[in-house]
Structure formats: C-alpha cells, structure tokens
Amino acid sequence: MIDFLRRHMNRVGAIAALLAIVFVLFACASSGQTGSGGSSENTKQIKGRSFEVEGGEVHIQDAIVEYYSFLGSISKLKGTIVNKTDRAYKSVEFRLEVINDSILVSSEDIEVFTVKGRRYLMPEDSMSFDKSLFVDVENPSEKNYDVSGLEGSFPVEYEFQMISPDTSRSITHVTEDISLDFSIERNEIGFNINNKSDKPVSIIWNKASYVDTEGSSQGVMHEGVKYSNRDQSLPPTTIPPGASKTDVIVPTDYVRYDDMIDDWTTEPFFPDGEGAESYEGKTFSVFLPLEVGEETKNLNFEFKITGVSPVGI
Q1: Collapsing DSSP states into helix, strand and coil, what is residue 79?
Q2: Residues 6+ positions from 21 with CB-CB distance below 8 Å
Q3: Domains along the sequence of the chain with CATH
Q4: Cα 150 to Cα 93: distance, rounded to the nearest angstrom
Q5: Is pLDDT above 60 for 237?
Q6: Mean pLDDT within 124-149
Q7: Residue of 37, 59, 32 whose CA lies nearest to 48
Q8: Are 222 and 245 in contact (CB under 8 A)?
Q9: What is the pLDDT of residue 261?
C-alpha cells in the first residue's frame, strides 16, 4: 500500500510540475504583449496604408500584429480604419501579408464589420478594430507584415414605384373592396390590407408568388410561418368585413439555414455596394390572389426601382 501511494504521489507531482511550466510559459508570453509600461517584443507595427475604393479612400492606420514567439503564431491584429469617402461603409476586407526578405510567405484574409451600434462607418469617421487570429508563422519576430487589397461594402438606399395595376409612388392599391399599402424592405415586402367590403377577404397563399428582377418566379411565405415549413402548404389568411391585417411576404428562395450562426436567415432582394446602381430601372412583382366572398381576384403588383443611392451621400 505504501509503495502504491508513493507511486501515485510521484505521478501527481510530475503533472503539477508540467502544469507549472506551461503556466510560466504563458505568463512570459503575456508579459511581452504591448501594454502600459510593458515590453513590445511580441508586437510589430504595420505601415499605414491608403486604399482607393468607391467614393474615395479608406485608410488603415496604427496597425499592430501581436504574436507568440514560442508558439510560432500570430494571435491578433489591431488598428484603426478611417473612412475618407463620400459614403457610409458597413464592412471592409483586406489581406494581412507575412513577408520574409521581401518575399510573401503567407497571407490571411481579414473582414471587419464597420457597424458601430446601429450606425455605419460614416464619411470622415474612424473606428478601431481588434481581430483575434491564429495564423501559423515560423519565427514571427523575424518577419515583416503589411496589409493589401482592401475592398469595402457600402449600404445603399432603394426607391420604388408601383407601375401595375396602378401607377403610385406611395405603392398603394385601392378598390371599392380593399386597400393595400406596401412597404418594401431589403429582405421582405410588408403590407397592410384593409377589407372595406361586407364580405370576408382571403389571401390564397398557396397560389401567391414573387418574381425577381431577373424574371424568376418562386413561392412565398408570410408572418407566423416557420422558416423550416416554408415549402409546405399554407392555409389562407381571412380578413373579416371592416377589419385589416398587417403581414409580410418573404420569397422562399431567399430563406436559408446559416451554419455559421446556427440559425435561419433571409437574403436581401437587392445588393449593397458597387453593383447596386445597375438595379435602377429594373422591375419585380408580387402575385397575390384574393377571394372576396365567392369571387376570386388575381392581383399582380409590379414595382420599379426608381432610385439607388449610397447611404451618406
């Protein structure tokens, strides 16, 4: 029994010693990080860069690479993004380059979302970024670092007009039986329907559809339907006489499951960024069959994009 206890204690002592060594190594690495009064031996400054983008320039300033010499890896990239354009930006992408004797030996793509709270990075505004990384680099203290290839995505605002069955900048349709007010968002079409008749009005969802700017037709879902049930049969929505109903239309092809966030999401109908202006003048439509009492009314609402402008201009 005594021999067993002695062997067990020896194992415990060895494990404790190993843990102590690991703790000391990490403590030494942490003490080398840049900080108030600390050493900068585990950081390297990156030269400031300016990149031409749509609407002006975006600057990367005060960029610093942090690394662990004993692990041979880059752990963090920090710096400041300055928007010198005439528009807001919602994200920027660039490349962190690892250079040895003027030769590019490694690179890492970096994306920074420049949304602060509910605001985009507006013109003449700046923001700091702090990106955690794990990039294997042999002898990181002996390498030089740079940033290149910056591209940005800027949000745009779209303006719409109804061109059928009515021509209406207020995107409203009114008959003696109903009134329909639409509100077009980036990933859904909201509407309010008011039943002015003395008969029930029903929306026949199984026959409703959305036709995109390229002429492709697809089914729709609406509020209250689970994303996972988007392709199943949908019961009608009935609005009693004198009542109204607020709902949304979501094309089913724009719904997908995102493994990165482990949740459902909806794609926007129209893009942000440089390709957005080409959408001006394009049309899309919603086919919405209604039953008013015993009568079926097949309503096809066609909309035109009348304006596209970057946010901030």
Answers
A1: strand
A2: none
A3: 40-153 (2.60.40), 156-310 (2.60.40)
A4: 5
A5: yes
A6: 92
A7: 59
A8: no
A9: 87
- What are the strands of the beta sheet with 103-113, ordered from one edge? 103-113, 91-100, 144-153
How far is it, in rounded angstroms, from Cα 38 to Cα 149?
A: 33
- Please tell me the distance from the alpha carbon of residue 133 to that of residue 303, in angstroms, as a whole number: 45
pLDDT for residue 15 is more than 80: no
Q: Residue 109: in which H helix or E strand, if any?
A: strand 103-113
Largest Cα separation within the chain, whole Å, is: 98
Task: Fill in the DSSP letter of residue 168.
Answer: B
Residue with tokens 């002695």: 6
Q: Residue 283: helix, strand or coil by DSSP?
A: strand
Phi, psi of 122 (to 5 degrees): -80, 165
DSSP count for the chain of H helices, then E strands: 1, 22
User: How far is Cα 252 from Cα 161, in angstroms, rounded to an integer?
Assistant: 23
pLDDT for 127 equals: 94
The pLDDT value recorded for residue 116 is 65
Distance CA 272, CA 263 (A): 22
Q: What is the pLDDT of residues 186-228, one digit of tens each?
A: 899 999 999 999 999 999 999 999 999 999 999 999 999 999 9
